[in-house]
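Support request from a user on the community tier.

User writes: "When I paste my structure tokens into the form, the page sometimes reloads and wipes my input. The last time it worked, I copied everything first. Here is what I submitted, just in case something in the input itself triggers the reload:"
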């Protein structure tokens, strides 16, 4: 995850100072913890949270008996991992939807611009995939743009959106819940009004909605990119609403990300979801242990596999695998593979999930725009050219470059790298006898997307 790259690098550097040490003592652990403290504060983690974290690690490190099969540095990594996990909540917390009431009510609150409306639609998609029948209620009645946005997103995911012409949030929600009852919608997701900053009118309306409709879940949506202000906003909302969980949005940003590490400790409410990107599928359950692994550069292969299973078309994957084994892979197949991988999210996020991959391919070297160029180039080819790239001569390359808005050099580069990739795939299939099967997920498109 891009947001934690700088923190990950600094923690890795601090922990490396303990490698090779025969034992842990006050001096070497003190030096490492000083660097860890600086790394956390640089990442905009709350000072009180950082101070407590350092003290807990120091206490456990100096009191720990080093197991013979484990080095002191490995022991410290384990302690830091455990404390990071606890800082972010310890265990994953599910939505509380165990109720006999139909519809169950989920209220979404937060400031304008935090991604609240987009999250409401993402949540509806998430629940729909799990067999529920959600209804979106457009209760942000003061901003026509918010209602229009929710209707557009609802149409994309084929979930109905309830709205009325009047600027009356209470009436909208009341009628919306009645509509849900009459139309077999078992969950009502209320998108409440947001403001650019906290004000009394917004808070009073949110409190009234909570009192009148008694939601099973109140989720507070906060922009992770605003740093410590995210924690302050969470505190203000929690004091008035006593919400049930936090949703961190814009986790694909390149800011310091300290809010994600601070917010659970400060408001004592679990982070339930993290959101990155604008696509309706770009929503992940928050697992403190998996996030701690990613921050420490251990990857998150479990989430990677889960995302692949959920989003990839297994039939297409199997068909592509057969083509690879027969060495019949062409640019049409490559284009299809790009579309499949894009379903799983950004390349940066995928790289951060694979243990050790972020060290091999730093995410700042991955250029997502390069993928769009590749798509444009392939789309500008004829069917015959995609199936037989060998026929693409100079005049065809000039035509493709013009049609895709790229240069002849970029077309040449793609064709050259694709040819190299086919050679590599051919050699890999020969390893099948040794038990290594090549699958569609093995295609290294990340190399093609790297900055030249």
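"...and here is what came back when it finally went through:"
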């Amino acid at each position: 995850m891009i947001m934690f790259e700088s923190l990950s690098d600094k923690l890795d550097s601090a922990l490396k100072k303990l490698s090779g040490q025969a034992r842990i003592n006050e001096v070497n652990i003190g030096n490492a913890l000083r660097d860890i403290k600086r790394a956390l504060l640089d990442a905009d983690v709350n000072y009180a949270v950082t101070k407590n974290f350092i003290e807990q690690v120091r206490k456990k490190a100096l009191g720990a008996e080093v197991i013979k099969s484990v080095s002191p540095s490995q022991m410290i990594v384990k302690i830091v991992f455990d404390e990071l996990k606890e800082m972010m909540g310890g265990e994953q917390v599910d939505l509380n939807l165990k109720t006999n009431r139909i519809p169950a009510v989920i209220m979404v609150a937060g400031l304008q611009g935090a991604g609240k409306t987009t999250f409401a639609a993402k949540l509806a998609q998430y629940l729909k995939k799990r067999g529920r029948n959600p209804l979106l209620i457009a209760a942000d009645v003061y901003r026509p743009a918010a209602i229009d946005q929710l209707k557009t997103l609802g149409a994309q995911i084929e979930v109905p959106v309830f709205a009325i012409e009047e600027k009356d949030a209470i009436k909208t929600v009341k009628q919306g819940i009645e509509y849900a009852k009459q139309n077999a919608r078992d969950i009502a997701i209320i998108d409440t009004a947001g403001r650019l900053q906290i004000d009394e009118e917004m808070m009073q309306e949110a409190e009234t909605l909570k009192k009148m409709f008694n939601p099973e879940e109140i989720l507070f949506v906060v922009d992770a990119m605003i740093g410590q202000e995210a924690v302050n906003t969470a505190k203000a909302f929690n004091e008035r609403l006593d919400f049930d969980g936090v949703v961190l949005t814009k986790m694909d940003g390149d800011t310091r990300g300290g809010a994600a590490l601070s917010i659970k400790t400060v408001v004592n409410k679990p982070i339930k979801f993290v959101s990155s990107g604008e696509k309706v599928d770009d929503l992940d359950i928050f697992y403190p242990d998996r996030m701690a692994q990613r921050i420490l550069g251990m990857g998150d292969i479990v989430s990677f596999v889960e995302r692949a299973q959920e989003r990839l078309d297994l039939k297409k994957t199997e068909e592509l695998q057969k083509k690879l084994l027969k060495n019949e892979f062409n640019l049409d197949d490559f284009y299809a593979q790009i579309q499949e991988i894009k379903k799983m999210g950004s390349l940066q996020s995928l790289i951060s999930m694979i243990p050790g991959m972020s060290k091999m391919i730093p995410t700042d070297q991955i250029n997502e725009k390069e993928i769009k160029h590749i798509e444009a180039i392939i789309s500008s080819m004829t069917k015959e050219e995609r199936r037989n790239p060998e026929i693409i001569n100079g005049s065809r390359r000039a035509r493709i470059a013009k049609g895709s808005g790229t240069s002849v050099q970029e077309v040449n580069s793609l064709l050259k790298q694709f040819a190299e990739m086919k050679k590599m795939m051919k050699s890999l299939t020969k390893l099948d006898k040794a038990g290594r099967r090549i699958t569609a997920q093995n295609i290294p498109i990340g190399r093609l997307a790297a900055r030249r």
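Agent notes: The reload is a front-end session timeout and is unrelated to the input. Residues 2-87 form a domain with the Four Helix Bundle (Hemerythrin (Met), subunit A) fold (CATH 1.20.120.140). Residues 408-429 form the longest helix (22 residues). Escalated to web team.
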